[in-house]
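Request: Show me your protein:
***
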Amino acid sequence: PAPLWRGLLGVLLSALMAFLYARGGIAYVLGFLLLVPWLHALNTSVGLTRHLLLAYALCLAYTAAVFPWFAHAISSYTETGVFLGWLVLLVTAPVLQPQFFAFVIVRFITRKMGWAKLAMFTGSAAWVAAEWLLPKLLGDTLGHGLYPSVALRQAADLGGAAGLSLMLLLTNEALSVVLAARKQSVRGFQKPLGFAIVLPLLLIIYGLFSMQPTPEEKLKQQPSRAEKSSALRVALVQANISNYEQQREEKGTHAVVREVLDTHFAMSYDAVVRQHADVVMWTETAYPTTFGHPKSEAGAELDSEILSNMRAAGVPFIFGTYDRDDGGEYNAAAFVMPETGLLGFYRKTRLFLFTEYVPSWLDSPNLRRYLPWTGSWQKGSGARVLPLRLADGREIPVMALICLDDVDSNLAIDGARLGAQAIFTMSNDVWFTHHPQGAALHQTVAAFRSIETRLPQFRVTTNGFSGVIDPNGNVLAGARMGERTLVIATLPVGAAPVTLMLLWGDWVGRAAAGFLLSLFLLAGFNAWRLRHPESAELASSTAVFPLRVAVLPSAARYIAGALRLFSRGSLLVIGAVTLYDEALRTNTLAQIRIFSGFF
């Protein structure tokens, strides 16, 4: 066993690489080896206590290196000192990053059972399974750091960001084996080094072949009439008005609402009249009170004014506001059509803990006295798709996501399954004004929803970063932090193409949990056999079950092996063809014929 200080040095090296990795750019390559120093420390440590200590140390160091902006966001939101923000961040680090502990425990137990070669797979499976079972507050995962690689990130339509995380974990594990065997012969680390090279290479090849055509290429490939019918031009209004509460205290509620509406109306007029937008989108809670359910006569007058202006514009509007019913109030997106007025609401599903809501079992007057900023919004019921009827008569089904909703793969997938042809995302990232890395990470996470569903996305924020995202995850047009601007772009829309994520949902975490459960049952069965050897001998006795073995000649075995390889390869080809061929996917008889012929 190595001394503890060497283990902590490995933790610091991994945290330093994580710090650079989280800042994007070419540093994404560090994702393939950022855990290697820490893994080397685990491999040279003895005892579960030492392993848990190293897990806790990296949990703290990783949180401090990757999420320093969150500490400042906490202090900004709560209007307390930065010290308290950092204290909250570090104290809650094990809750924010529980995967480190699951990884270490499962990996340690696997190695203790004598399955050392299997430990790299069980530990990695435990990591992604923990992130699936214990959804993290910020929805982050290691795979998000691969966003700068256009080719690698395309594999998110297979397994989401969790699939990319699994690939990174396995690659790091393989390189840690190479490090441990560096003083041995080449044969000692040949296989793990090949694995560490081939696995990312396969994803790069997949990404290069699976990238969708760019909007320009897609529109050029279509006839002029189809081009017009598939194009959607959206205007995102980034008004750069923030700190509503502070302005309410200084100017009064009515004056603030008046300024917000006047600014949005003026920018929307420019978007419709001069920029010829098909749809106008405002940000989250742009209208900071209930819409359609006014609380006063003044509120009813503002509602009427909003509807009159939007009807006069002649295009659909989507904007953030509040909705309410007998159950309470909701953070919502309102859909307003020029002919019919208010079409409906999408209610935010993923609320932020201790800011937008508190679990009912924890809520109390005392808690709200100590945390006066805590909200009381209710959760929405999930994805909802609403039809936008454009001025030219086209009707395009779209879905909305609000702020933290866009970290949830399942919400976007559910919307795509319901027929959405575009994602409309709105957020208020004002808490990251002075530390824009948090806002940039939020946009990166949102971009993965477009890759997973292959749907275009129009994302508007209060003061940055607003952007238009294509199905490959590219930000085609955007706004910087802290500027008042219109972001306008035209993207082709249509039914979501079939991806593995759409077929199976966010499946990687579930599959990893199933893999670990299977191993647990196998280990339990083996333990039972050791405790009951007489039962095991009886079950395998040749006296009860006479056994005869016929060995084929070598040539026959080679032929049989080739046939098995051919049949299994054929099955993979059939699956791939069925995935991308709509006609074959609905023709059961053709599937049976192909299967019978090849398999």
